[in-house]
Amino acid sequence: MKYFTPPSSYSETEAQGPEVCRNGIAIQQTFHHIKKRHSFLRKRLVSILEWSRVDKGIFILVMLTPYFLQYFLWSGYVVNHSELHGIVNISVLNSYLWIQTILVVIGCGILGFGLVMRRRKPDAVFFQYLVLQFFSLSMIAMFYYVGPLSFSAGLFLLGAPVWGLILLDRKPVWWATGIAVTALLGLGYAAAYNVFPHASLMIPPTDQAGRVFWMNSTVYFNALFFILILVMADQMLAWWHAREDNIRELSRTDALTGVHNRLSILDFLNHEVARTVRMNTPLSVVILDLDHFKRVNDDWGHPVGDLVLQRTAEVLQQNIRDIDALGRYGGEEFIIVLPGADHGEALNIIERCRIELARAEILTESNHSIRVTASFGFVCVSGLQIEPHVLIKTADQALYAAKSNGRNRVESMEVSSRREEVLA
Ligand SMILES: Nc1nc2c(ncn2[C@@H]2O[C@H](COP(=O)(O)OP(=O)(O)OP(=O)(O)O)[C@@H](O)[C@H]2O)c(=O)[nH]1
């Protein structure tokens, strides 16, 4: 984990870029950076999951517009090409045109209702029920005319619920899917039992030109929907994964300092203890505590105390190696895990941290300079089967010795040789 300085304001977050986000301050800010990396269109798409229920419903309605537009254009084309009248049932086409027109009017009504709802009750789930039912109704009307056993029906049955489940509330999607599937099955069996003709819009073509026309029409009506399902599903899932990664990162980050939090540093320590046993390599664990930190809070106030903690983390992070890990153990106490560092190397690193921290000038907002020191205790083991908490306890005892011996110093302690304690 890389160290970062938590930004004090939103605009500062923006200026610092995505590196800040990975360590996390606020989910909203993090999301802002994910979005920032995308182009304008992508940005609009990825933020859909954050939209209100009503806005998502309106989005579905708007997405239906190309479908209606396509049908009107296609109908106009067919009506104006008399050679197609032998393979398209014109009277059915006209009645379907009427139904489409009525559906457009209903759709506009729902859209208007949605525009009112988005102000008054933006999270009304009822609106999603309404929109999805309208969506299903439009599709069922289409399948009545082009046939429930068509490619379009399969694509719709698979694509729409998947897309809906990603984007919308689950209940209205299951409800609309149930109704659509029931209606499609009903239409399919009714056509199979000759209750009405299957795909009444189409007159089965007898020549190649007719078959090619119907093939082209299938592509024309389905390509957009197909591409849309894929692109949106891909975008949603990518966004979802990015969000999960960020939330996981945030859950392992100390909100004030941006270094590992207690859970995360202990996790890291567990892994390193297992590795030292497996590889027989050295491992050092350091605990440090700021000296007289209470005075900083008392003299300068809590916000300045926070600033000191942030600056301390920054100095420590700058003076450890890339493979080391720094975590906030609690309050003004930090842990540093130094994988592969023997006693001598650990001492060098810790001394460097101690000296640099004592040297660091911390400027308050009122331009006052504060200096702090810290006491360090550490323990070094190599290939020893040992419980991590024993290491921490031993390092803590060394820290206690450093405090007792005058502070701003480093002390080390051998791990207890008593077997029951080592394995405790
Ligand atoms: N500003 C700030 N203060 C904190 C935070 N967590 C703990 N503290 C303060 O850290 C101080 C710790 O004080 P003590 O435990 O008495 O230790 P100390 O004053 O550093 O003295 P020694 O450790 O003996 O050198 C307390 O005043 C806590 O309120 C924090 O997140 N921010």
Automatic annotation (TrEMBL):
InterPro entries: Diguanylate_Cyclase, GGDEF_dom, Nucleotide_cyclase, Rev_trsase/Diguanyl_cyclase. Its EC number is 2.7.7.65. CDD domains: GGDEF. SUPFAM superfamilies: Nucleotide cyclase. Residues 281-415 form the GGDEF domain. Gene3D superfamilies: 3.30.70.270. It catalyses: 2 GTP = 3',3'-c-di-GMP + 2 diphosphate. The keyword Membrane applies. Keywords: Membrane, Transmembrane, Transmembrane helix. Its cofactor is Mg(2+). One of its GO terms (molecular function) is diguanylate cyclase activity. The chain crosses the membrane at residues 58-77, 97-117, 124-145, 151-168, 173-192, 212-233. NCBIfam families: GGDEF. This is diguanylate cyclase. It comes from Aquirhabdus parva.
